[in-house]
Amino acid sequence: MESNKSFTVLSARKTYRKTQTEEKQFVCTECKKNFTELSALKKHQMSHCGKKPFICTECNKSFTWLSWLKRHQMIHRGETPFACTECNKSFTHPWVLKNHQMIHARDKPFTCAECNKCFSELSMLKQHQNHAGKKPFTCTESNKRFRQLSGLKSHQMIHTGEKPFTCPECNKSFSRLSHLKRHQMMHAGEKPFTCAECNKSFSQLSNLKSHQMIHAGEKPFTCAECNKTFRKRSGLKSHEMIHTGKKPFTCAECSESFSQLSTLKRHQVIHKGEKPFTCSECNKSFTRVSSLISHQEIHTGEKPFTCSECNKSFTSFSKLKRHQMIHTVEKPFTCSECNKSFTHRSRLKSHQMNHGGEKPFTCTECNKSFTLLSGLKNHTMIHTGEKPFTCSECIKSFTDLLGLKRHQRIHTGEKPFICTECNKSFTYRSVLKTHQRIHTGEKPFSCTECNKSFSQLSPLKYHQMMHAGEKPFTCAVCNKRFGQLSGLKSHEMIHTGEKPFTCSECNKSFTQVSTLKRHQMIHTGEKPFACSECNKGFFQLSRLKRHQMIHTGEKPFICT
């Protein structure tokens, strides 16, 4: 039937007829993609052969297509001709601007006739209508509904644990044939979809499309809580669970819950004791490929990601981003009580409970109350002795995931917290804060007996034992007691004869490093303790004090 569509030019009508009737007869032999014109096929095939005839005269970067080169050249010229009328932000390409404008307008022209839900793209509406349509097949376990019986059967394998499709290479099993085929590409090394910008290849077209957003800088999905943006809707949904606290995936071994299925699967490897990823340099094995990659950087020493603020380099882009928060971190959510700022609204709400004194979650064992349910859950593990989070490197266990992650930095050597004064790095934020007191001279912990101040709470507690006469550490050989564990350990060397600290000048050995340092002053001639009366110098404070008695006339020692 002839269309009633009108055309002003005969050639346009011919083109229209051609697109309406002509089949896509030109097929790519690499990835089976179809094209209506031979020229389009040839242009596409350049992505597989790696041919890049268009070269940038500024930086010699090559491109498959002229249009990609022209867009790239805008970076050198600083040209961003497509400007947003709402916020004046500019972009190099019109489709990036269009996606950006959805953030302001929330433009959703496509409406579902059934439920009036609106969408920004037609594809999203169609996807929604598939979900919202008639679903006669219901899962008896989770009440999830499906349009087809095959969909229900595939879903039920999640509950039964059935995985009938097995990889002949590594015996890994899958619940669906499509998942097996996707997995087998990994063994075959097959990656038919190639990025025209950087030649990176992918086994799936969807992964290529997600990757291309990195080059375009496109992040169309925005979190309503904290305005963080994401390239994928799935990334946004996973992120939103941080604010809602939703964790739908539970480990059958230890009942620990997770916001993502992939995180649960990574966790389950801990219980199995599996370490399938092995370093080719030293044969050390790891539970995760990411841990292996981090470890391998120890051998290569490669740190390709550099901070533009302080020139510090990092092994991964994620570590660089975390570091850059030190220089630029935004905290838009401010507490009206104490003006403390937070990066997320949810963290501000948790903080505000401290001012209100609200602690709705109470431990049934000891009646201790908490502002958050997570705090109560972590606390109850003290009573049960439960430590479900186990380090895959050394089998040490922890009550919470945060404790495990902090501990794992010991194995990876990661020190993400950097002192802005001296650039020294630390594994923990608390250690950085303690270190910074060296620069500020701050000593917030004071002894109530003698007003002596300390930069840390632990030295104050040991000091207070001196006033109390408390000596909890006892020598097993001679029963001598000490106020500090370090004092006991130094004393025990008298019995063992151990003297691990040796002078490089005369080879004399000592039980303590402080004694060695004092001894070395004999060789250097250093006398840091000077008498205020006669300027005579001493290398020990005790000797200065003894000398000062000459000036004061003090004679504390009486002959009996």
Automatic annotation (TrEMBL):
GO MF term list: DNA-binding transcription factor activity, RNA polymerase II-specific; RNA polymerase II cis-regulatory region sequence-specific DNA binding; zinc ion binding
Gene3D superfamilies on file: Classic Zinc Finger (3.30.160.60)
Residue ranges annotated for the C2H2-type domain, each copy included: 26-53, 54-81, 82-109, 110-136, 137-164, 165-192, 193-220, 221-248, 249-276, 277-304, 305-332, 333-360, 361-388, 389-416, 417-444, 445-472, 473-500, 501-528, 529-556
Keyword Protease: no
GO cellular component, one term: nucleus
Keyword Oxidoreductase found: no
Gene Ontology process terms (BP): negative regulation of transcription by RNA polymerase II; regulation of cell differentiation
UniProt keywords, alphabetically: DNA-binding, Metal-binding, Nucleus, Repeat, Transcription, Transcription regulation, Zinc, Zinc-finger
Cellular localization per UniProt: Nucleus
Main location as per UniProt: nucleus
InterPro entries: C2H2-ZF_domain (IPR050752), Znf_C2H2_sf (IPR036236), Znf_C2H2_type (IPR013087)
Family: Belongs to the krueppel C2H2-type zinc-finger protein family.
PANTHER family: FINGER PUTATIVE TRANSCRIPTION FACTOR FAMILY-RELATED, ZINC FINGER PROTEIN 502
Protein name: Gastrula zinc finger protein XlCGF26.1-like
